[in-house]
Amino acid sequence: MRFDEKFLSAVSDDEIQVNFTKAETRLLLNFIQYSNQILSRAQLLEAVSLGNEEKLDRSIDFLINRLRRKLKDDAKNPSFIATRYGEGYIWLAVQSKKQALPRNCHAVVGPVRGLNHISNYRSSAELFSLQFHKSFQNHFSDNLAVVLDPDCPGAGGQEEGGPEIGIELGFVLSGDLLDCVFRGYSFRTDNTIFAKRLTVSGTTSPDVEMIADEISSVLRTGLATDVKAQLPLAVGMIEAGKTFTGIKGHWSENDQELRTQVEKNPTDYRAKIMLATNIHTKYLQDSVQIFSSNADPRKDDEDEIEKLVTESLPHLQTEPTFLLPAVKLLFFIDRGYNDIAVKMAERLHKESTSLAASLPVVGQMRVFVGQNEEGQRAIDQALELCEPGSQYEIYLMVLKCEALAAVSDRGALDQILDQVCSRVPQIEVLMQILFTCSERPSKIAQQALVNMSPAQAKGMLMLTHYVYGRLLQDPEHRANAYRTPVSLFTRQFGPNIIPDEVRQVLQEGMKQDT
C-alpha cells in the first residue's frame, strides 16, 4: 500500500484507492510511530479518542477490523496488523523510505508493481523488467539516462532536473500467462500518457525488443497527442521527438518510426495521419535544403499525403485531434479539396474542446482564403493560451508573421519579427530574409545576402512559395507575401533567380487583380 503523507488515504498495488476516517487515520499514525511494538487496547483507544469521547474498550476491536478490511489484511496471515491475544495489536509493515532519483535521469522504468501477487512468476517478471529496460533505453539518445527503479518513489513534486517521463510496470496473472500493464506517465505531473496491457510470460530477448519497440511507439504517439498539452499535432510530434533525443525534434527522426508503425498495422489510422503530418513537417523544417538541391520530391510526397488522409478520414470522424491536421493537409496539397477542408475546419473548431489545437489551424486557413483579420484574431487567441518561450509559441508567432506579411502591416510585423528572432536566434537569418522590409532590409538580411549562394536563395524563395505563398487565394495578399524575398534576391542575383513556377503564380495574381 502507498499511503499519502497524512495517512488520509492509500492506494493498493492494483490501483484501488481507500479513504480513512479521522479515527482510522489517528490509529494508523499511532501504529506507524510504534511499529513492531505491541500496543494494548487501552493505548490504542487513548490514541484515537478525543477528550470528551466515550472510551469503550471493545470499540477498538471494531475499528481494527474495519481498518483490516480497507487494507485487505488477513487476520490469520497479516501483512499489516497482527493480533497478540491477551496483549493487544502490533503493526508489522515496514515503512519504505522515499528514494531520490539521480538529477541527471531523463526517464525511469518503474515503479514495478504486483510482484507479491504472482506467486512463482515473480522471477520471470523481474527478469522481464531488466530486459525491457535494456531494450527500451536503446530508443533514447546516448546522452539521456534511462534508469530502472522498481521502487521508484513516484511522480509529482520532483525537483527541477529530475526525470521527464516514467514507464510503470504492473504485473498480473491471466490464467497461466503473465501479463504486464505498461503505464507511461509524466514524472512531474503524474498525468497518464498511455496505458497498454501485453502478455509477457515466456518472452525471449527478441520478444522483449519487440515489446520495447511497441511501447516506445505508443509513448511517442501519446506525447504527440496529449490531450492535456492541447498542442497542434505537428507541434506535439516535434515535442515528442525531443523526449527521445533531448533536442528539438526533427521530421527524419519520426519518419522511420511512423512508417514501421503503419506497416505493422495498416488500420492504425492515427499513425497514418501522423505520418502524413510528418511529411508536411519535412517542408517546414528542410525546404531550403530540399529546394537548394536538384531533387524535387513534392509530387510523390503529395500523392502519399493524399492517400494517407483520404484512407483515414472515414475512420476518424470522432477524433478531432487527427481530423484537424487531416483537413489542413488536404488544403496544403491543393488538389481540389480546399472548400470542403475550410468548411470542416470551421465545424471542428466550433465543436473543439482543445482551442489551443484548433485555433492555429482555423486561423491559418482563414488567412489562406483571404479572411486575414479573422485569421489573426484566432492566432492571437491561441497566443494567449500558450506558454511563453515554448515551441508552440514560436510556431504561432511564425503564423502571425505570415498573416501580417500578407496584408503588409509593417509596424506589427517588425515587432513580432524581433520577438521571434530574439527567442530563436538559429532561425534569425531565415526570418529576416523572408520578412524584413524590402525597401530597408535589416543589417542581418543584408549580411546574409552577401554570403548566400544562388541555390540557397532559390531554396528560401521556394520555402515561401510552397508552404505559404501559393496557398493565399487573395492576389494582393499573395503579392505582399512574395515581395520581400523576391525583391532581395532579384537585386542580389538578377531576375533569373526567380523560379518559373513562382513567376507564374505572381503573373496569374496580377491578371486576376487586373
From TrEMBL:
Q: Which residues bind DNA?
A: 1-93
Give the source's domain of life in one word.
Bacteria
- Keyword annotations for this protein? DNA-binding
Q: Which residues form the OmpR/PhoB-type domain?
A: 1-93
User: What is the native source organism of this protein?
Assistant: Roseibium sediminicola
Query: What is this protein's record name?
Result: Helix-turn-helix domain-containing protein
Concerning SUPFAM superfamilies, the annotation shows:
C-terminal effector domain of the bipartite response regulators
Q: Which InterPro entries match?
A: OmpR/PhoB-type_DNA-bd, Sig_transdc_resp-reg_C-effctor, WH-like_DNA-bd_sf
The yes or no answer to whether the keyword DNA-binding is present is: yes
